[in-house]
Amino acid sequence: MVREPLPSLSRRSFLHVSTAASAALALRIVTEPMLAYAALPDHHPSHPKDAVLINANENPLGPCAAAREAIAAVTPQSGRYLNEATGEFTTLFALSVGVTGEQVEIYAGSTEPLTFTVRAFCSPHASYVTADPGFEAGMFAASRAGARVVKVPLTRTLAHDVRAMLAAAPDGGVFYICQPNNPTGTLTSRADIEYLVENKPKNSVVLVDEAYIHFSDAPSAIEMVKAGKDVIVLRTFSKVYGLAGMRCGLALARPDLLEKLSNYGGYNFMPVTAVAAASASLKNPTLVAERKRTNEQVRTATFQWLDSNGYSYIPSVANFFLLDTRHPAKEVIAAMAQQKVIIGRVWPAMPTYSRITVGTSAEMEQFQAAWQKVMKG
What is the pTM of this model? Predict the structure, then answer.
């Protein structure tokens, strides 16, 4: 699919706005697709229609059949706001995870509440603390809030180093944990997350981003929300449910914490198609397990191929992994684009690794053929 340039800023400049411009963009939300698009090679500003897209952690399976049917059914009513549907979905989701409706807020994707959490709890006196490498959206939000961004290297096992995070930021306002971590696809133990929650500074929050948790066996931090802790959990229907383009996410927390997020956004009408698709997906009792199994099968087959051909990678429990490019990763990304295979971006902490999204079996076979050609070339 050809993707058009970002409308209000050039593809690259939106990540490097001037100080004067940043004030006007104070509430701009940086998302995964924006970051993926900005990382495209300069000579490939768009994708060929037949390109393999394994760069943005999208789910190639898309919406399930029930979700597609729900979208079609609600489309004739899309001239209405249908706010009651959002309320019904909120109740449905709350029941599915065992919380109250007051502990759930629905957003157009999970990056909105991530950004709003940073805006609510970070300032020039309250730092944003995250892993390195880690998902960058919160870093941009913190910088625009005038907050110090504290990046703490992962442990040797590629978990969040919660003790180092606490030591590095006694002024921390938000401690961000991505579970599994983006881009490494690795987990942090429940015990470490609990330690962080119990030892963080007063008036700060632990923000646990569970965008990819359905692909793993990790326990959810929603139990900490139920216990009334200073924890905000993010969920999204973009990944395992395949609704990235529909935009439906959630924040779960105590009502007083959610109220603070509302000062920066929320309480808006959701796209009716997104709510219909998410509701139908949530009602499918086998969908998550089926898609987790499919992703694991393709991921395992890919890892076996990489092992048999002597390529190094970081084992992941998510729908993506970091692959050693052996050369500056930006050069390899450009070379793969020449083969019509678009792979993911680079993190400064790991300049010879590129993040690869797990696609379909056919897409990963095309990836393998292109990778061999580039590596041997």
Answer: 0.90
